[in-house]
């Protein structure tokens, strides 16, 4: 892909959703900082840990888990610092600036497809945690979330969002392309692939796996603290993590809670049999080049 690199003064906030290199990005609040020279020259530090997800894959859950592992289960930090400061979104201008000025943790978050990563990323040994989730659950979670976000293109119905998802015309582009791009790193030592499903199935062992990857030793008591403080209910009630301070005009939190149901397989309550079958057909076609063992659903 030929990268478009712009000067800072050429980059404006989008006033609507736009496609860049065939990937849809949302307008109004998002400045496409990832098109600037400054971004292109951004240097990752040796100790950085990059959390990458396709939206609605359990990003906030993982941000909380990482924060808690970092503090060996002590919840003081997650109770006193906003989640977006603990693991700033590298592609959001305000967060990118925060990251450069007041870096307070090794964690960086992103939904960006791999081809938008700055050049230094590909030369660095930065640790990458990539969380995947059953795409049919992502469709449902995504539809219900984006429709209450003022700066996102709103689908009139789940049927319409489903069609957009199948075409890849949703924020951050095609799920299939996102997964293919990031999984190209799956054999690298600095890459850890996790899934929402394994977090749900065996959180304790997944937390141990993550702490080993990060090189953080956790005793039994610390693991218990991590598990208790990252539970769905505790996070939903934590004002530093539940977006309660975000203005209603940006996200309608009643309509679009980040902490909605927190279960696997909710797609069965929303997609029709025909939609699920058509999706599965496309999935088989698009994913046939990747080992099915990587994906713990179906
Ligand atoms: P649902 O909409 O299916 O409930 P992201 O953080 O990437 O936006 O993902 C949001 C999804 O993760 C939502 O899924 C949300 O409920 C779920 N989630 C967030 N925190 C969770 C937790 N502690 N345990 C389980 N699921 C969680």
Keywords:
single chain; 298 residues; alpha/beta; Rossmann fold; 4-stranded parallel β-sheet; two-stranded antiparallel ribbon; 14 helices; 6 strands; 40% helix; globular; binds adenosine-3'-5'-diphosphate
Quote the CATH topology.
Answer: Rossmann fold
Sheet of most strands: 4 strands, parallel
The portion of residues forming beta strands comes to: 5-15%
Bound molecules: adenosine-3'-5'-diphosphate
By DSSP, the count of extended strands is: 6
Query: What's the CATH H-level homologous superfamily?
Result: P-loop containing nucleotide triphosphate hydrolases
Structural class: alpha/beta
What string, H for helix and E for strand, traces the elements in order?
EEHEHHHHEHEHHHEHHHHH
Our Rg estimate from Cα atoms comes to 18 Å
**Number of folding domains?**
1
* Backbone shape: globular
Query: What's the rounded overall pLDDT mean?
Result: 90
Number of helices: 14
At CATH level 2, the architecture is 3-Layer(aba) Sandwich
Q: So what's the oligomer here?
A: single chain
The percent of residues in helical segments reads 25-40%
Terminal-residue CA separation: 33 Å
Pick out the low-confidence regions.
none
Describe the protein.
Helix 2 packs antiparallel against helix 12 (about 220-230), helix 7 (about 135-145) packs across helix 8 and helix 11 (about 205-215) crosses helix 12. The chain has about 300 residues and is of the alpha/beta class. It is about 40% helix and about 10% strand. It has helices at about 35-40, 60-70, 75-80, 85, 95-100, 120-125, 135-145, 160-165, 175-185, 195-200, 205-215, 220-230, 230-235, 275-285, and strands spanning about 20, 25, 50-55, 105-110, 125-130, 190-195. The protein has one domain: 3-Layer(aba) Sandwich (Rossmann fold). The strands form two sheets. A four-stranded parallel β-sheet has the order 4-3-5-6, sandwiched between helices. Strands 1-2 form a two-stranded antiparallel sheet. It contains 14 helices and six strands. The mean pLDDT is about 90. The chain is globular. The chain binds adenosine-3'-5'-diphosphate. Adenosine-3'-5'-diphosphate (A3P) binds near residues 258 and 266.
């Amino acid at each position: 892909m030929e990268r478009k690199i712009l000067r800072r003064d050429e980059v404006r906030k989008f006033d609507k959703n736009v496609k860049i290199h065939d990937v849809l990005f949302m307008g109004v609040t998002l400045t496409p900082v990832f098109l600037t020279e400054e971004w292109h020259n951004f240097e990752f530090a040796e100790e950085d840990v990059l959390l990458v997800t396709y939206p609605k894959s359990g990003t906030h859950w993982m941000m909380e888990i990482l924060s808690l592992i970092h503090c060996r289960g002590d919840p003081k930090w997650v109770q006193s610092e906003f989640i977006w400061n603990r693991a700033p979104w590298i592609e959001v201008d305000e967060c990118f600036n925060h990251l450069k000025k007041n870096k307070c943790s090794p964690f960086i978050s992103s939904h960006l497809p791999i081809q938008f990563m700055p050049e230094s990323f590909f030369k660095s040994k930065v640790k990458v945690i990539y969380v995947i989730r059953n795409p049919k659950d992502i469709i449902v979670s995504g539809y219900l979330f984006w429709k209450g976000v003022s700066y996102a293109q709103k689908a009139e119905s789940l049927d319409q969002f489903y069609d957009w998802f199948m075409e890849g015309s949703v924020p951050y582009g095609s799920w299939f392309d996102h997964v293919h791009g990031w999984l190209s790193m799956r054999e690298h030592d600095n890459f850890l692939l996790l899934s929402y499903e394994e977090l749900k199935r065996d959180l304790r062992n997944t937390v141990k796996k993550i702490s080993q990857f990060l090189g953080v030793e956790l005793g039994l008591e610390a693991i218990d603290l991590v598990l208790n403080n990252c539970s769905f209910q505790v996070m939903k009630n934590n004002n530093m993590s539940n977006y309660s301070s975000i203005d209603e005009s940006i996200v309608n939190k009643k309509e679009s809670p980040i902490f909605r149901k927190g279960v696997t397989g909710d797609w069965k309550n929303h997609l029709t049999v025909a939609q699920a079958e058509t999706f599965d057909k496309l999935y088989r076609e698009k994913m046939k080049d990747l080992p099915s063992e990587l994906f713990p659903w179906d």
